[in-house]
Amino acid sequence: MKFVTHPLILTWLCTVALKAAVLFFLFRRGIVRTYPGLSLYLAGTIALSLFRLYCGIQSKTGYHDAYVQTQWISLLLYGVLVLDAYWAMARRYPRVLAFASAMAGAYGTLAAGAAWLLAGFGVPYWADSVANAVATSRNVTLAGTLFLILARWWWFSSASGVARNVHRYVNGTILLLAGQWCVAVLFRLLGATSANINYAMYVITAAALIHWIRMDGGGEEWRRAPAPENDPRQSLEELIRRSREMYD
Amino acid sequence: MAAAHSRCRDIELFARLALGEELESGVDVTALLRRVEAMPATDADLAWSVITNYWRLCNARMRHYRTFCEDHGTLLLLLPMVRRAYFSLALLAFRVLTGLRVVSLRRMQPILAFLYS
To answer: What is the pTM of this model?
Structure first.
């Protein structure tokens, strides 16, 4: 049981418990289904953490092996989280799917290109056996951060403003991804030990969770009410009504 | 008499554009363009005034149009309109700064009509 009683693992389990608390409060406030990506991310990472913990208890290299083998699930969950945060900003507007998809494609290309250009930055300092896994992970977090910063710049500048929950959701997600990239790259360049880097990762996760736990049932209101659907028949009827008023 | 009046009107419009004043809806933009095309290139202050005010006009109008598009589900129309607006700004800047008479501002007419619609 030495694995479980290590302070690093105990801190990790604290963040897992905090994730469960966030999921519970989102459920209690009735907004779990409003943000399906966030709920899936939380549930998925909790399940993944418990599985890795189980593997770590089973054998000495269990955690390490499980981390490398299940890393694709973490990356998939990051993708789900980023796309859901993006859609939370865009979905308020009527018939926005085509524009939002085109913009996501353009911003995604820019972000992936920037991450690809920076992919080598700081890598020679890594000598861990999980260096490849960490490198992949931090490239994904950088691309996600840049993508969300661009999207945030566009959607938050709308005259409609942004609902408080969306504000917290997007800010928390950017904080999580950007923080993880900074810790994985900059802390490593500054010569931090693996243990300290892991502690910093948990602090970053907790900071993002604090953003998400503040999402509440009253935070769904936008500054401007959504416009009614632009139904051509209704517009025609409105035009006829106005014409009658003018001529009567 | 009518021609002189029209010319005075053109000068007034151009001065108002240079000063960044709001123009009324449906103004005759061809007259405005004639004034800009006749402007001497040596007057750098006036040229910069026109460029900066046109830049502000484009920004304000595009922001307004964006809100309209967001409300009516036509955001896909925003991008070509933004491209036309800022292309026309580049064209205007090039024309008034270089004073090259061969560069026609006729291409600006549709977007200018839109900006003042």
So the answer is: 0.81
